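Reading a protein record of the kind used here takes only a little practice. Think of the row as the fold of the chain written in a discrete alphabet. A record is reproduced here so that you can trace the correspondence yourselves:
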Amino acid sequence: MTSEAPRRLHYAAIVADGVRSGLQLAGSILVIAIVQGGTPGLAAAMALAGIGLGTAVSWIDWRAKTYWLDDIALHYRSGVFTPDEKVVPRSRVQGVDTVTGPIQRLFGVVELRVQVPGASDADEIVLRAVTHSEAARLRGALGQPEPAAPDARVRLGRRGLLLTALTSPQISVAVSAVAAVYALFQNVIDIERDGEGLLARLDSPQAIAAALAIVLGAAYALSFLAAIVVFAGFEVERDAQVLRIRRGLLERRAQSIPLERVDGVVIVEGLARGPLGLAALRLETAAHGGEKAIARTLLPLVRRARAEDVIARLVPQLAIEPGELERPPPRALRRYVLPQAIGGAALGLLPVVLWTGAAWPAIAILALLGALMGLRGHSGAGVRLAGNVVVLREVRIARRTLLARRHRLQEHALVSTALQERASLADLRVTVGSGGRGRARHLEASTAGAAFAALRRASAQPAVRPRGPAPSPP
């Protein structure tokens, strides 16, 4: 077995790691200095000391990091006092992604991330800074050659980027950020007056409504800006074997995903995008299954009517002919509507408890909204078998349609409770190799049973593998 000599990362990795750890350390020191009542000069000096300490630690860490290739695997060694070595067999590499941030662009290098099926972020190999030529060499050696002329390309234009930002679903993350900023002001900058905090001064429904409107407005603005930063310049290309996705304004990220390892695609229609006829496409792959939705985005915005056509262009294995889903029967309607209506009524009790009898109408309003959500769920759910693809749709808050390759299913199940058996109903559930799930609820029992039997037959057949020489034994 031949093995090359260990190599070190580009020295830009010292700066990249130093800035990251230094800023974190400096932020902690700065907050402590302010809380302890230190002068601005002392706080600034301590922050600079934190940045310097972080850079020194990064230099020591850089000296301990090496990587090398042999005939079988990529090796990565790190750690000063407790050295750790990660070994990724070449045959298990699913993708080689790159990240080009401001520091990488300054030094003319890239960050390389080696993705492995089923691995967490802690298990993947991250080379913080390597030259472009070295990145190309590693990609080729790991079975991820340089891009060929694309067979298909889809770009997100300026209008699409604006619509993506306006309908961005990341409000919950933004609300958390706003809450964190409030906590900073409340606990660090001392905005209390006479021992009374901001929340204590919200003593009327009008004040609470105004504060809620301010928080949601700030969250929406943050969500809008975050979507612009994340999805600017978004484009996806496909050649005969690989999908390549590029995105980002401050950090330019590039993902490469072998087509043969794509388990499925999910069409997501949220509350903001669904009424506008818009959706997002998300990939289900084993290497990216545990990552956030942004990292699994195939296309952040697409017209719903064109979603299947776009999927067929980018992932030909998931191309399906037009057709209708097998939907739940009319007698299943109450099973969708009643639980949602009861849940809405229970939620309506909260303002009644807070604001006494003046909020009683909230119970009826939220119960009606819950019933409408249940009606939407009944009309949207269904299943369809289209050749080698299974399609399942479920509607909760968002409407999610999973298109999955039948031989890439990790498991499939036919579920029927005692009450469902009495009504001749059943649920069909599938899980793809990445851990992504799809479900169609309260289907006709015969429909769900036939689909389950067809999926079981497909799973019993061996998957067709591309022809080629057998891998060399270790």
In short: The first strand starts at residue 66 and ends at 69. The CA atoms of residues 72 and 153 lie 34 Å apart. The two ends are 9 Å apart (CA to CA).
